[in-house]
Fold these 3 entries.
Entry 1:
Amino acid sequence: MISVVNSFKKYIQNPFGKFCQRDFCFALSAMLLLTSCGESREKVSVEEFKMQLQGEAQGTTWQIVYYDLQQRNLKPQIDSLLQKVDESVSTYLPGSVIDNWNKSDSGAAIDSMFYEVLGLSWRIYLETNGAFDPTVKPLVSYWGFGPEMYAHPEKADQHKIDSLLELVDFDTLRLVVNDFPRPIDGLRDKRIKYSFPIFLSKPDSRMQLDFNAVGQGWSVDVVAHFLEKNGIEKYFIEIGGEIKAGYPKPDGSLWRFGIDKPIEDLAQRELEAIINLRNKGLATSGNYRKFYEVDGVKYAHTIDPKSGYPVKHSLLSATVVAGDAGLADAMATAFMVIGTDSAIAYLEGDNNTNSAAFLIYTDSNKYKTWVSPSIASKLSSVE
């Protein structure tokens, strides 16, 4: 009995970490043996260590499931963490770091969270040849898809759009260190260590940044890192539809998630497929629900940073699987900008080593799908 107790104590110190299934079963057997020694105590099961949390943040809802032998309720810490994210990069929160930067004349100080999202955005900007560009914010607002939701023009003003396109230029931002402006390309150099806050300058007071196309996915990664730091590796996290799944459940099964059919009416939600995930992030972007209509013309919420107009193409939704939810989130947005053929070309290209996707598009008024070979075996159709 003493050896069993000691083994269990050792297991407790690293709850649900990188243990094989045999180790978990041994620890659980030890608990069953110990609890059976007292008639007043009930036997335990794996599900008793399943923690389910939910809440609201970033204008949406979140839910988290994790397995923890210590049965810790980490909701207060997670709420605090998500509040800090909002205070840094939410354009919907007045007084946030990004809100202050957007309203500034020549730039403003940014914190470490802002810097991390900026770095991820720069990476995707380069990989997609500018299809993903957070400086598109003035155009997003013009078309009515920012905090000023649906305050859109009744008729597009080409002169106004051209003037706003001049502000879409990620390359012109500069990090100012010791009064010396550094090109933003330095974000790729992980050897550079900054002390925060640090100043981020802009050449035109009208320039603005919008991290909404990457922020929720990145927030999922922030929470995942927090759980892992606390020894929790069997989890799934969902914030506003963006997802990260950790190691499989204690019974060895993978986390399963549904991919919606591109139906406009949310009340009639139907699933197109189900995907199994292990240590991956997932995000879906689509224009079939976020749009408005004027004189019979639909205007999608995805804005092309090169043309200045809402996109018009056959791609209805892009579900991306990547190592991190933030990367998946940004790539899903980029695919919705470039469309079906260009997205497939990117996914099949030699430069893509990080992403896989499930695309739903129209062809001759019929729904069709395309899936990356690397995730085909993880998908099952829904009849």
Entry 2:
Amino acid sequence: MKKSLVLGIVVLLMACKAGKTTAISAENFSTDAEVGTIMNYLASDDLNGRDSGTQGIEKAANFIENRLEGYRINPYYSSYRDTLTGFTPTAYNVIGFLPGNDPELKKEFIVLGAHYDHIGLINPKNGDSIANGANDNASGSTTVLELARYFSKARSNKRSLIFAFFSAEEKGLQGSVHLAKRMKQEALNLYTMLNFEMTGVAMTDKEYLIYVSGYNKSNLAEVSNRYAQEKLVGFLPTAEGFNLFMRSDNYPFHDQFMVPSQTFSSFDFTNFDHYHQVGDEAAIMDFKHMARVVNKMIPVVEGIANAKVKEVKYN
């Protein structure tokens, strides 16, 4: 029996055992068409590069909110919007919430996050001044939206899931800093924070699909690969060299909660030449790769959410 078929059966059985769930195959859940629909909007010229506090990112926030509402993912606060303190003009994170289905484990929370802002309009190149931010980070936002769509259908998570879309990452992680501090003050029982950044293009000549920042800080890669039943997550030396662990939205949660908080990515500094440039457009993204990342991550998130004990730990 093929490993992929076995994985699909395992996911179905896990979903059925979790309580009030719907049996859904994770193997081909996300598709390049579904990914493309989200990406082609979030990275479109109409959003003018999604700079924080602009009309463009307002459109992106509305889009994300409508998706979450359509998935029957509840707002975490009184609305989906979490307004940043001291940021002008007004900017906000978008936060959804799916309670766990286990009476005890639902008191523990997992944050799945990505920043949905970018840098807006920059100096023109060949008449184009819109830094669309497809890979950075409409791709990560799409990954989180697709995970939200899966769990909204499967309802298989024993622990509670928070889907967080951060603003002002490009201004110094301000959105995630704000939310991490707020949730710490509210005494959130956070188990782990899994962040997604620049997942739009596949790596080449690697024996793994994605890497995790702060690889040696925890056993997250080991746990992920066990649930994926393959070497899904690897170690990228360049990520350690550039200290990516401290440069994305995972870090404020590490700083506030001191629980495993790390970022998954497939940007390896060789497979993408348009960082913060007008060329970062949806047309050059690999939607099939993105859907594959989602589908491979589903049993990982599901396994972490449903384990009897907290398995992901800092070394």
Entry 3:
Amino acid sequence: MKPLLFASRLAFICNICFLLCLVIQRTHNFIPQPDIRQMIVVLGWMVAPIQNLVVNIWYGALLVARAPVRLPLWLALTNLAILLLQLYFNLILPA
């Protein structure tokens, strides 16, 4: 279960970067350092959807197999909610 916990935490951090990217996109650049801003954009727009999709598929596979998931419930639900938000902003909104 430790690899899933690590992947879930990484997905959560990337999801926070995704939310920061949405704020940066809709407001002015409030992060003055360009290196930090670029890292947030890469983690938020590129890594977050892929990492979050992998983690949620992993959750789903464990639920289908009826294996015990030893993760905090808030972490799994937050990752799922932000995955739905990512799907909306990346697939539905641009059309």
